[in-house]
Structures are given as structure tokens and as C-alpha cells.
Amino acid sequence: MRRDGLGPVAIRQGNHNSMKVPFFTLDRQTHVLRDDLSRAVSEVIDSTKLILGPAVGEAERAVADALDAGHGIGVGSGTDALLVALMAAGIGPGAEVIVPAYSFFATASSPMRLGARVRFVDVDFQTLQMDPEAFRRAITPATRAVIVVHLFGDCADMLRIQTIAADHGILIIEDAAQSFGARHRGRPAGTMGFCGCFSFYPTKNLAAIGDAGMIVTNDDAAAERMRLIRAQGAGTGQARYDHQLLGICSRLDSIQAAALMVRLPHVPDWNRRRQAIAARYIDGLAGLVALPVSAPDNDPVYNQFVIRTPERDALREHLMGHGVGTEIYYPIPLHLQTGLAPMNGEVGDHPRAEEASRTSLALPVFPELTDDEVDYVVGKAREFFRSGG
Ligand SMILES: *Cc1c(COP(=O)(O)O)cnc(C)c1O
User: Fold this and answer.
1) CA nearest to 376, candidates 281, 307, 289
2) 389 pLDDT exceeds 80?
3) Residues above pLDDT 90, as percent of the chain
4) 3-state DSSP assignment of residue 43
5) Could you give the domains of the chain?
6) How confident is the model at residue 10 (pLDDT cuts 50, 70, 90)?
7) What is the pLDDT of residues 116-163, one digit of tens each?
8) Under a CB-based contact definition with an 8 Å cutoff, are residues 135 and 169 in contact?
9) In testing the pocket of ligand 1, which one of 77, 86, 104 has its CB within 8 Å of the most ligand atoms?
10) Could you give the CA distance from residue 213 to residue 208 in angstroms, rounded to a whole number?
11) Which is the closest atom of ligand 1 to the Cα of 150?
């Protein structure tokens, strides 16, 4: 029995306790942070300020400061961060939103839920990030926004995307759910467009102790609108029942906010550890598989370490047989997701996203992973290729 309440994670990752090297686990971190997390939760309970209490404001300020952003708007999840950002941008029926074909489902479902038309674009085959030229080609007179995903803890080729977006008057919404702390030309992911959307799902680089998310933006008026939208379109205090617009109910929970304050100071160290693990993998696997490639001037923070090989399934089987957990991000590209009908497409529409879905394999990467464990994974992968795959 897990006692950390992370049922969905446990199910998705398989029974990691039987694994020699788990794909992901919070067990090792929970031991270290349990007292701090418990104290933070108790303080919220004792404060009785459970909804939009001081803990939320503190976390919003701290996250915005950590990212050098003007405002943080806490919401219920990364998905809701996208939804609220799109609503604040006035996206709805008649608008087109461009999204990469290779990402998590929420990147595309959020604009669709608002009645916008979604246009998928292929990714760069080296970096797996949105291909700026494909983005340019997908633009129509109806294009209002682009959701740029900073995938796997890296950043998209923002300089080129920003130039194209500016030329066409297109709003940039950054889906930085996987890239807390990553940088492009020195700028933090999530601070290079209209706004940045973060998820604090337990596997992300900054995690809450349940679902949570945040939007960061430098746009004062947009921040104000986002605060209204997340809380039924109404203000706080006296303005609580004065509804200015159609909002939703998706506030950052005070308990999650308090948990974020416990973890936030550790993130720089954890990200450096992820980078060290990635460097060790890159050393050990060079020449055997396609390794992660960053766009120029990026500092990736490896929320995932994703390799590619045509022998993906056999390699995965081999590693599994030796107790190494792996995952596939993502087995189905967005334009082939049934749930995105009728905006989805056909096989062949975005060949590089499709190829990535067939060949990508995520190896274990989390801060508490030891060098010995990384070496074990590398050794087992080398063994697979030595024996002819
Ligand atoms: C995790 C994730 C989300 C959604 O976050 P939730 O908090 O699970 O709603 C959105 N986009 C990307 C790219 C993600 O990885």
C-alpha cells in the first residue's frame, strides 16, 4: 500500500516498488520533506483560511519572483492554467489556435473546449519541440494564438517563434508545465510570451501534493482578468458576489500553495541534479540511440529524459526484464487522438510527431536517482545493443 495518496501516479508507473530502478518515485523525497510538508499543511488548517488565504498569495509571489515574472495566478491544475489563460485572451469560437502535434492532451483540449479551432503543427525531429517553419505555414487570418509547449523540460526555439508571432500579431501562450526553471537565452520558460502556464502535478519539476497549477504573466490587465476568471468572474472581499464575467471555479488550494512553498527552494538543486543525470546518460548512450537535442541557447531541466530508437519496444522490454522502469511520451500524437475529433487528423499529417511516438522512450530521471542507478540503466541498454537488439 502506498501511503502518499498518489494513486493515479502509482497506477500509471506500475508497481515501482518491485523495480530495481523505478521510472519515478516520490518515496525518497517524502522521507526528507515529510515534517516540513506536514507542518505546512497543519498551519493552513489552523489558519482556517482555506480558500485564497495568505498561503496562496505567498506562493503566487514566490513563484513569480523565482521566474522573474510580474504576476502569478494560482489555479487548480496545469490544464486549468491553459484554460484560464485562453479565456483571458478572449479565445473562443471563430478563433484558431496553433498547437504542436506532439504534447500532452491538455495542450489541445483546452482551446477546443472553448470552441476554438485547433491547428496542429509538426515538431522538429532533432529537438521534438514545435517546428517554427511549420508554425509559420499553419498561420491563417483567423489565427489568434499559439500554444508553445516547452517539452520534456527543454524550451522551444522561442526566438524564431517570437519573431513569426510578432510579424502576424499572434499571442504566445507558453505551456511550460514540464519546464519549471528551464531557460532560453537566459529567460525562464513561461516568461517569453503573453503568459506561461505551469502544472504542479506530482511528477513535475516543482510539485504540489496533489493537483495544482499557476499562470505567470507580466501583463497587469491580463493578470486581473485571470484572477476574476479563476473565481467565478468575481472579486474578493466585498466584491465576492459581484460577477464581472463568466468564470470557472479553479483556485489554487491553500494546502497546495503551502506545499509549493516547501518544495520551491529545493528546485534549483533538483534541476541541477537532473542535468547531471542527463549528462551521465548522454555520456553512456552516445552513438547507440538518438539523444535529447536542445535548440540553441537553451538550458534544459529534464523533466523527462527521452531517447529515440527504432528498437524502442524491444529495448523497453529488455530494461523492464532487468527491473528498469520506463515510459512512453507520447504513444499517440495529438492529431491522432480520438478525443480531439473533429479537429484531429490522419496518419501522415505530421510525420515527425508520428515517428517520435513510435521511437521515443523516457528513462528514469528524478533528483534522488543515484549515479549507480543511472550506470545500471546505461549498462543494461548497452547490453541490449551489444547483443544485437
Ligand atoms: C502536465 C502537463 C499539463 C497538464 O497539467 P495538469 O496539472 O495535469 O492539468 C499540460 N501540458 C503539459 C505539456 C503537461 O506536461
Assistant:
1) 281
2) no
3) 92
4) helix
5) 32-265 (3.40.640.10), 266-386 (3.90.1150.10)
6) very low
7) 999 999 999 999 999 999 999 999 999 999 999 999 999 999 999 999
8) no
9) 104
10) 9
11) 13
3-state percent helix, strand, coil for the chain, nearest multiple of 5: 45, 15, 40
pLDDT at 1 over 80: no
- 362 bridge partner residues: 306, 327
> Cα angle vertex 223, ends 108, 111, to 5°?
15
Radius of gyration of the chain (CA): 21
Whole-number Å distance between alpha carbons of 386 and 153: 30
Model confidence at 9, pLDDT cuts 50, 70, 90, reads: very low
Q: In this structure, what C-alpha cell is assigned to residue 323?
A: 527491473
Query: What is the Cα–Cα distance from 221 to 241, expressed in whole angstroms?
Result: 21
Whole-angstrom Cα distance, residue 389 to residue 385?
5
Distance 258 CA to ligand 1 centre (A): 20
pLDDT tens digit sequence for 277-296: 999 999 999 999 999 999 87
Residues with CB under 6 A from ligand 1: 77-79, 103-104, 106-107, 149, 175, 177-178, 199, 201, 211, 213
Q: What whole-number distance in Å separates Cα of residue 341 and Cα of residue 105? A: 12
Q: Which atom of ligand 1 is nearest to the CA of 200?
A: 7
Cα dihedral 292→217→333→131 (10° resolution): -60
